[in-house]
């Protein structure tokens, strides 16, 4: 028999009509905020900021389209070596294929993915909290965050990776909850001592998480961090389940039944998908370094020469990209006016200027300007450190496991950059952090919601604080909206929005 009584059954989730209403409201505002005025900010009709790299690369793919499955290749020789995997540009190319080489064409897929990211954040919150209200709060925060908004309105890479990371975390949560039900039902139906515990069977949600991780890796190499963190998290969650349900040799059981299938789903599947994302490179005879071994680009003494030509060229490409990224260090003389370090991301201390048009004549007289920053809504970003501390305390001291996955996901997007602090970095690297900050904030609001004395209105003091906080977030979103959308504003208004010297 199980020692003592069987642990309580894990909760089940039921979709309600209120869920449909709240999700529809968030969907409406997500679409409006992401798509309205999407084409307005250009450099005389051309891409701005780092769009100048990725938009032409996506257009290369449209023009060199091989077939519907393979797609096209990116060359963009004017900017040298293409230093990121091809998936995000392949997705952007779909928009350009439909709408042409135009601002709408190169931004429409980013806006779509930005909208879906909000739904992903809500899905995670719904699964962790079980609350429609808290999920609605998460949706409001996600709509009102400046980083998620601006990332969704430019043809760059980050929002594509962010959606895949969010979906990978959501699928991992679904997998853990499904395994919780499986082991609970097994122990309930077979109340006898377990040496190693049961086999969980094939795990479609974990397999799905591996697919999303592979897609994230195929956008940027930083997806590797999430593969490592989520892989370890999955194994430790399995170990926790086996221990909780009285498995005597739960470590051995986890190693025997869970570790190798986890490696297959969360490591092998992402690697295979990453290789698949390069299919157009392998299919084309004119890809960069496609015949590097044969044309003498690879030295004759290199170990790559023993490999088939296509594989040698592909690996040489990756070595060249790794050398490029490794050279972008402050100590080697590389600097940028909008460079920022990871610790500044925790308070959105150094935003990035994406678009600037100054010395515009105002209708009311004087000088106006249009400025668009990748800029975090302060009421969200300035609570990053406090909510992380609260989540750690709740997880470690109060044993509230609902905070675990968003904490690990945040760590995967933050801690590895601390080890490479000498590297040139930018605030858009932090885009993947804010979805999980929002989840943590929403969960904290959920704990606060029922706290305190109930007032005559039926609301508790805690729920009033939450309502006020959400109102502050929305107010700040409106106040800083000129920096998100690039409204024409007087210079004096711009100066009033520059609260910190590091924002300039």
TrEMBL record:
Record-annotated Protein O-mannosyl-transferase C-terminal four TM domain positions: 312-503
Domain ArnT-like N-terminal: 91-275
Segments crossing the lipid bilayer: 21-41, 104-124, 131-150, 156-173, 200-217, 223-241, 253-276, 379-396, 403-420, 426-445, 466-489
Domain of life: Bacteria
Record's subcellular location: Cell membrane; Endomembrane system
Pathway where this protein functions: Protein modification; protein glycosylation
Enzyme Commission code(s) on record: 2.4.1.-
Entry keyword set: Cell membrane, Glycosyltransferase, Membrane, Transferase, Transmembrane, Transmembrane helix
GO molecular function terms attached to this record: dolichyl-phosphate-mannose-protein mannosyltransferase activity
Enzyme class at the top of the EC tree: transferase
Membrane topology: Multi-pass membrane protein
Classification via InterPro entries: ArnT-like_N, PMT-like, PMT_4TMC
Family: Belongs to the glycosyltransferase 39 family.
Known function: Protein O-mannosyltransferase that catalyzes the transfer of a single mannose residue from a polyprenol phospho-mannosyl lipidic donor to the hydroxyl group of selected serine and threonine residues in acceptor proteins.
PANTHER family named among the record's database cross-references: DOLICHYL-PHOSPHATE-MANNOSE--PROTEIN MANNOSYLTRANSFERASE, PROTEIN O-MANNOSYL-TRANSFERASE 2
Protein name as annotated: Polyprenol-phosphate-mannose--protein mannosyltransferase
């Amino acid at each position: 028999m199980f020692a003592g009584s069987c642990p309580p059954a894990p909760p089940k989730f039921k979709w309600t009509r209120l869920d449909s209403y709240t999700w529809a409201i968030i969907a409406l505002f997500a679409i409006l905020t992401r798509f309205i005025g999407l084409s307005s900010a250009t450099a005389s009709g051309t891409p701005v900021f780092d769009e100048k790299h990725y938009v032409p690369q996506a257009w290369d793919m449209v023009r060199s389209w091989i077939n519907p499955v393979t797609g096209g290749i990116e060359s963009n020789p004017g900017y040298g070596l293409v230093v990121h995997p091809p998936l995000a540009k392949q997705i952007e190319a779909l928009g350009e294929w439909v709408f042409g080489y135009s601002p709408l064409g190169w931004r429409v897929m980013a806006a779509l993915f930005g909208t879906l990211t909000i739904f992903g954040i809500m899905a995670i919150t719904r699964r962790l909290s079980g609350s429609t209200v808290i999920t609605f709060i998460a949706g409001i925060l996600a709509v009102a965050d400046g980083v998620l908004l601006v990332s969704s309105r430019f043809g760059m890479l980050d929002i594509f990776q962010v959606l895949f990371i969010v979906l990978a975390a959501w699928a991992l949560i679904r997998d853990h909850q499904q395994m919780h039900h499986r082991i609970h039902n097994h122990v309930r139906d077979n109340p006898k001592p377990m040496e190693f515990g049961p086999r969980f069977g094939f795990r479609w949600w974990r397999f799905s998480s591996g697919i999303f991780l592979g897609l994230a890796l195929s956008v940027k190499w930083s997806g590797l961090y999430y593969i490592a963190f989520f892989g370890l998290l999955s194994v430790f969650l399995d170990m926790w389940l086996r221990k909780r349900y009285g498995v005597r040799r739960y470590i051995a059981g986890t190693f025997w039944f869970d570790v190798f299938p986890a490696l297959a789903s969360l490591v092998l599947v992402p690697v295979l998908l990453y290789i698949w994302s390069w299919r157009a490179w392998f299919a084309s005879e004119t890809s960069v370094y496609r015949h590097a071994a044969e044309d003498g680009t690879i030295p004759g003494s290199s170990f790559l020469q023993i490999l088939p030509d296509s594989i040698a060229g592909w690996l040489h490409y990756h070595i060249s990209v790794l050398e490029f990224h490794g050279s972008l260090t402050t100590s080697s003389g590389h600097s940028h006016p909008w460079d920022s370090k990871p610790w500044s991301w925790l308070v959105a201390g150094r935003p990035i200027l994406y678009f600037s048009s100054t010395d515009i004549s105002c209708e009311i007289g004087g000088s106006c300007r249009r400025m668009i920053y990748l800029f975090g809504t302060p009421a969200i970003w300035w609570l990053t450190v406090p909510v992380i501390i609260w989540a750690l305390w709740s997880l470690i001291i109060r044993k509230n496991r609902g905070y675990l996955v968003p904490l690990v996901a945040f760590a995967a997007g933050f801690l590895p950059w601390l080890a490479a602090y000498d590297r040139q970095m930018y605030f858009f690297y932090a885009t993947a952090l804010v979805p999980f900050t929002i989840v943590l904030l929403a969960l904290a609001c959920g704990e606060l919601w029922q706290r305190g004395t109930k007032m005559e209105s039926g609301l508790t003091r805690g729920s009033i604080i939450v309502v006020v906080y959400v109102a502050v977030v929305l107010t700040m979103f409106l106040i800083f909206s000129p920096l998100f959308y690039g409204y024409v504003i007087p210079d004096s208004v711009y100066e009033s929005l520059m609260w910190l010297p590091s924002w300039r």
